[in-house]
Amino acid sequence: MALMTWKDAFKCGNPSVDHEHEVLINLINEMHGKAGADCSPDGAEDVIKQYLGEIHALIEAHFALEEKIMRDIGFKGYAAHKEDHGKLLDEIRDIMESVTGDSWEDYEKDLAKSMSRWFGVHFATYDRDFHSAHSG
Q: Which residues of 43-79 are buried (b: 16+ CB within 10 A; e: fewer)?
């Protein structure tokens, strides 16, 4: 079973950005499947750290691109948008720093909570506003 499911409600209206967001959800679900299949705590820890690193790098690169576009177009909501990006990256770094082999389910729950907030709130507000301004 998937940890997160892509929903049309997550779309912000920019096909390439929507694709990147969907790729991120797929990577999170891939981590969920691989960590869940590995019964060894040490193996699960390695898998979780590897995937969290990839997820963090993907999100960080995506945010850098969005923030560059915002600066280039003089987007008025840049500061608040960038601040929300920073909060999500901090949450993921906190999860990465706390990973041990004890309970991968706890880390997945924390990641799912962060991602749900990001997809449910950030996409529906910050990203939709930004992409509307960018395309308009």
A: ebbebbeebbeebbeebeebbeebbebbeeeebeebe
